[in-house]
Structure formats: structure tokens, C-alpha cells
Protein 1
Amino acid sequence: MAHFGNLGSRQVSGDVQDIRGTVLRDSNDQKLGTVDDLIFDHDTMEIRYLVLDSEGWLQGGRFLLPVERVSADRNHEDGLTTDATRSEIKASPEYDQVSLDSDQAWKKYEQEFKKYWDDKPIMHIKGSDRIITPPEEPAAAQPEATTTSGTGSQERTREINAAQLFPERMADILSDPAPDSSKVTLKPKSVARAEEAASGVTLLKPRWWESFENYLRENKSDIQGNCSQCNSRAA
């Protein structure tokens, strides 16, 4: 089982930009706080959560956010942004740093924490923190119907077929209906748009984010050597 730990007061090399101290803003460019600490996997050195100092607006003082909810701030080169609102943060499980001292306690806390945020699925425009409005499906084709007017004459409702909704011809591409790995599969526009939107769910991180994670990987042995839980697992 993966063991998570925090960076705490550990000093980092001067040639690496420390994520701690980075300002986090919401989608309205309002400051939510600064990164006070980070929680990462001690096996992969991948950052999973950010601990943020609310600087007074939150009663508990500090709050936790999954890294999936933060991205590079386009308006501030050295900052981070999130789609999370203050009301969502206030309602989220309060950060419990003590639980990190026990794998069992952390697992229990993380399950509750992840359930809260996982119940709020979002999609973003690729490379942006703007939320996507799911595309509407095309109206279903209506069969031809016959109605009788007030004069007794019959009027026909024009039938709409699939060729009118999707006029692109497929014969040149799929002349043979038999499946083949060399052929191109065309999908309805609504499906294609939804898949393209889904590809932007992973938010873009700042250029210095990867450098910091690389720093953690390069110092993995030292970090694990100073972790009581990592040492107990290795024994």
C-alpha cells in the first residue's frame, strides 16, 4: 500500500522553485490562500494534495485540495488556480494532519475526503480552467406523420433522416462494411465533441511543477530515510 507523507519544514535546493508559498486563486481571480505544505506518495514521489493556508477566511485555518483541482494560473505566472469555491472548501472534510502518522488513520480520512470531491465531477476546456458545458445531443428524427387540416385535406410532416443530420459521406472511407484495422471509424459529432472535451479534464500544471517533483524523486532515498513509516516498512 502506498504511503503518503508531507514535506513539512524540509528545506529544498535553492535552484528549485519551492511550491510552498505559491498563491492559489479561484476562477474569479480572488485569492484563496497560499500553499503551506504538500502531501505526496513516498514510493513514486508524486504530489497528490496541497495543504493551503486560508490566511484567515477559513475557521480551521488550513484546508486540503486534490492536485486534480488545481492548475497553472494564466493571469499569474508563478501562481495556481482552482475551480473550487470557498463554499465547497468550507463544506469539505477538515484537514487532519495527525492522520498522516498512521496508514490506517490516513486511509480512513482520505476515503472520506476523496468521496467528497469525487462526487463533484467536472470537465474543463483543454489548457484552461474554464468549465465545459456538455454538448446537446441532436434531436431524434421524427417519423413521417399524416394530419388532417380543418378543410379535410391531408398534410404530411416532412421526415428527417440521418443523412440530413450528418451529411458527410462515408462511402469513400468505409466502402466495405467489414471491420478492418486500416479503416477510419467515424463517430457522430456529438460523441466526438464529448470525447474531445473529456481529453481536457486533466488540468495543466505550471512548468515548475514537474521540476519540483523531479527534485523529490532525486532525493527519494533521503526523504524515505527520514520517514519513520518508510523505515518501519523496510525493516
Protein 2
Amino acid sequence: MAAAPAYNGVVQAPTDEQLLKEYLAGQAASFELLVRRHAQELYQFAVRFTGNSVTAEDVVQETFLQVHNSAASFDPSRRFKPWLFTIAANKARDAIRRRTRRRELSFEAQVVPKDEAAKRFVELLSSDADEPEDDLLIEERRRIVRDAVQAMPPKLREVLVLAYYHRLPYRDIAEIVEVPLGTVKSRLHAAVATFRDCYQAAWKDRATDEP
């Protein structure tokens, strides 16, 4: 792989688009760098979307295999990351559909709720939030958050995961999900409301079950 250019003495890391171009020119190490750069984030997206770690690993592998197979058809006027996530989202949707058919049991964007109550529920999604409770209660709250996210319809869960956990801009989400920008915003608003309802119901059930 060619050495990264330097500006004012500072070495500039190659962009994703540059790495893909180098890979198409025969530099296999550039593809390996793309994988190292994005694999962990893709896995986090897939496991949150599908709710299954094994499925998420398969999604990541299938995504990079698709990138390898389709690299020559990549439009260089586009940005690589939304294209990558589009592939991953499609693979994850396929996995969810397959799982449903077999009846197996097995989130620079900000979520901007329209009211403070919704905002509080969105904040529950953060695993790094400061919690005053004991460790057991913190873990229970996190479990309920995970379950509430998984209980959401896939179309709403998808935009919530992309927007909140991965902080992708609305325009990137629209490209990944392949819907208009306005649809992304409406789905995200519905996702916050749905998460709120699921979380409230689960927390209420927990309180009812307590002795």
C-alpha cells in the first residue's frame, strides 16, 4: 500500500474511498485495513439490530464478502461508509426474515424527541449514563433497555440503532434504509415513542413481580 500523504509534517490516514481504490488496484492490505476500521462498529450495529451475537457475526462476514464482490461497482462519487452500512442493513434484514420464517426465538445525528418525557426515555439507551442505583438495579435497567429495543418493529429499531448508537446523520440513514429523509425523521420519532412504551411496560411488569 502506498504511503499516506503528509501535510505540514502530519501523516494523513487514507480515506475509506482511497483504500477501496487501492484494493481495486491490487493492494490487498487496503481491504484488510477497511475491515479493521469498520468491523467492530458493524458488529455492534448488527447485534443491536438482530438481537443475536452469532447472527451479527454472520452479518459482518457477509457484508465484507459483498464489499469484496461488489467493489468494482462502487460509485466513487459516493461515500464508502453509508454504502457499507446499506449492505450490512440488508444482510441483517435478510437474517431477521429468515429467523422469522423459521420461528426461531433467539441505534453527526441526534435523536431529538419532541418532549422532555421522550427525551428521558432516549437517555435510558446510553450504557454510559451515571446511575445512582446499586449494580444489580443498573444491570436490570440495562436488560430492560435491551429487551425494549428488541421488542420494537425492525423498521423502527433499525433507525433508532443507526441514529442513537451510531450517531449517523439523517441523510446517511436515509441512504442506508433507502427511504426519503422525511420518512427517516417520522420513523425516528415513532421509534422513540415505541421504545418509551416498551420500556414503561417492562418496568411496570418488573415492579409488579417484586415481592
